[in-house]
Amino acid sequence: MRLSTLSSLLLPFFVFSLLQTSTFAIKKSYIVYLGEHTHGVNPTSVDLDHATNSHYELLASLVGSNEIAKEKIFYSYTRNINGFAAILDDEEAAKIAKHPNVVSVFLNKGRKLHTTRSWDFLRLEKDGVIPSGSLWKKSRFGADTIIGNLDTGVWPESRSFSDEGMGPIPSRWRGYCQHDTDDGVRCNRKLIGARYFNKGYSAFVGGKLNDTFKTARDHEGHGTHTLSTAGGNFVPEASVFGHGNGTAKGGSPQARVAAYKVCWPPVNGNQCFDADIMAAFDAAISDGVDVLSVSLGGDPSEFFEDGLSVGAFHAVKKGISVVSSAGNSGPSPGTVSNVSPWMFTIGASTLDREFSSYVELGDNKHLKGASLASVALSSRTFYPLISAEKVKVANTSAADTILCLPGTLDPKKVMGKIIVCLRGINARTDKGKQALLAGAVGMILANDKNSGNEVLADPHLLPATHINFTDGATVFAYINSAKNPTAYITPVKTELGIKPAPFMASFSSRGPNLIEPSILKPDITAPGVSIIAAFTESVGPTEDKSDKRRIPFTSQSGTSMSCPHVSGIVGLLKSLHPDWSPAAVKSAIMTSAKTRDNTAKPMLDSSNKRATPFAYGAGHVRPNRAMDPGLVYDLTVDDYLNFLCARGYNQRMMRLFSDKPHACPKSYNVADFNYPSISVPQHSGSTTISRKVKNVGPPGTYKAHVRSPAGVTVSVNPSSLTFKKSGEEKKFEVTFKSKSNVQPAGYAFGHLTWSDGHHHVRSPLVVEHK
Fold it and tell me: What DSSP designation does 708 have?
């Protein structure tokens, strides 16, 4: 999910301008999920027709006839996912949910959309030189891995999707490019697929869509940015208004990429709907992708009442890694989304690069901010400085005006001044727009308390800079104490080697996992702040209609940006280790992660306090370490099914999920699910969990090293594991015992590391004291 720069006040305009009718009667659309198909992995046209007809017959048994059923169903998922999407009333939905062949029935819910330096920071290169030990070289830059992206589409003319130097398209690829209109997408040997899915969106808005919806072309920029981050080709001399200049490239520069457009102009804040997401998953699985990058999500819900989770389940069953964003609802606890154990959930943290623009106050204080403004103040002089709350128009509140909301600023009071706006409610760049419209010469954007130290470089329309909460308080204090406060905003400059880095972005959604607390989420963190990547040239970088600037690359922030970093790394590992399962790839990345910054101290949160696994999961990604992890926590389809058994899914449902009979174990604890992290919810007294590791390196002996969470002692049995060959698996148990003289409350954190002296296989430990 990207931090949106589009003002919510403009959303109705975008929607209604694209619909052929102004009628906005929202009808209820549902997804009826039936589990697994009985046909094989390569269904014939007869198989597909049979699946479609079975959906008609099932619904017809409740609504009266096949003809009515055909009118109601707008998607039939026939290849990998078994189910359909249909227009139903509440009574019909309740009836079909009781059918013995139905796993779940849920509303077609809406979801939100959740570089030149990143790969140097991640040590795949060093000052433009690629070391011999880099995962890039070892994996041949992800050659011929196929990365699919569910998002807002793609801008195919971007140089990031040039096929220069690319060989023939892999013969296993079965996808294609849709270009039903003049605005369609033409593919090449790099961009090998582009499709769009809009029936779920259409069902939700209740209007007929015009031809602008019949294309996979990206008119927003989010999909182009995320896809190029995951698998964009090398593009020299990329920058944003001359800043951050370097060679742009994705994590897997030689991978093939495919765009699946499932996100459209927002409706009530939602723009990607479950029915379309499931249709895209169903198509991508059959097309032959190796990795799916999904930078979108919503509120967490039960695993099979969530279209994204359902689609990911079927993809992982077919050996496809699904990487997703954790969400941008931090720093509040329990906000993380995409929490299914088969999904790879990514938080966001900073790079060691900043786009700096300083505030110089009239009392000689210098405060560091962040910006990518395309213009600078016209002269090197101090300008009058005023707080936005002091320039409100009549009949508006100071609380609204300090946020620089549209229509709150009085031009007579603003003209020729630098204005100070508070972060919150409307988009950061929209505040700059409102300041510019009111006649301000510049803007200082100050954080609220929740945003803490996180500052973001945005492509403002006027000279502007974003400062942290503490510095914002300094500015407001100066304004209130000085008789004639003045300030100057310095031009933007790029600074490298920033310390400490990484630290967690305040927007990155946090654990615990509200659906299944025994599964720690997010899984990992990766760069997600001020990431430069390709962009659409259909809109300006602020995505505002008034922004006439067009740039081929832009900087964006969000877990939407961190997600494709990991998708690209997954692509590299798939190229290097094509026999590894999605779980093995995830384990390799998680257990090789780091939790210290570039000052060798523990990673910090944006509040300057020590971050925890609820923010960063297993830690910050280290691609070169992940290619040789030593041991992995692997999982099979049966392990996922056993997990569902332990979650209360009955034998009937198990038959629907699997293409073969699956007997639930007589005793199975969710906490024993073989996840690379270990979470113990509601601990009291003594708790023992089991795990299993597979050797993917040379023979050797690994010893356990534990840092116990506060309030418990942790023992590992056996504490030493000897492997004689690659592929060998060993089981062990971890026992947590409460200390009798300590009565802690809440959560405590530690870690378990298996080491043979060369490999360090690290798992976070999370204990919730009852």
Answer: P
* Known catalytic membership, residue 301: no
How far is residue 344 CA from its own chain's centroid?
Answer: 10
349 DSSP β-pair partners: 504, 527
Given the residues 560, 567, 581, 607, the one annotated as active site: 560
What is d(CA 263, CA 245) in angstroms, rounded to the nearest whole number? 30
What pTM was computed for the model? Answer: 0.91
Q: Please write the tens of the pLDDT for every residue from 11-35.
A: 333 333 333 333 333 468 999 999 9
Reading the block at residue 761, the tokens are: 């296989």
Residues ≥6 apart with Cβ < 8 Å to 459: 240, 241, 372, 373, 374, 429, 540, 541, 542, 549, 551, 554, 555
Q: Closest Cα to residue 626, out of 588, 574, 582?
A: 588
Contact call for residues 592 and 631 (beta carbons, < 8 A): no
Angstrom distance (rounded) from CA 216 to CA 169: 20
Closest among 468, 231, 243 to 353, alpha carbons compared: 243
Q: Which residues of the chain have pLDDT under 70?
A: 1-27, 115-117
705 is catalytic: no
Q: Which residue is catalytic, options 37, 55, 219, 222?
A: 222
Strand 344-349 relative to strand 321-325: parallel, antiparallel, unpaired? parallel
The domains of the chain, with CATH numbers, are 28-107 (3.30.70.80), 118-351+503-627 (3.40.50.200), 353-496 (3.50.30.30), 631-635+674-769 (2.60.40.2310)
366 carries an active-site annotation: no
For 401, the token pair is: 């005006």
Q: How many residues does the chain have?
A: 770
User: Residue type for 84, please?
Assistant: F
R_g of the chain, CA atoms, integer Å: 26
The residues near 285 (Cβ < 8 Å, ≥ 6 apart) are 79, 80, 314, 315, 318, 320
Q: Which two tokens stand for residue 680?
A: 């113990």
Name residue 488's beta-bridge partners: 360
Which of 151, 287, 471, 597 is catalytic? The answer is: 151
Whole-angstrom distance, CA of residue 369 vs CA of residue 469: 11
Sheet containing strand 700-707, strands side by side: 678-683, 760-769, 746-755, 700-707, 720-723
**Average pLDDT value over all residues in the chain:** 91
| Nearest alpha-carbon partner for 18 in 212, 181, 205 | 212
Q: Are 746 and 709 in contact (CB under 8 A)?
A: no
Q: What are phi and psi of 110, to 5 degrees?
A: -90, 150
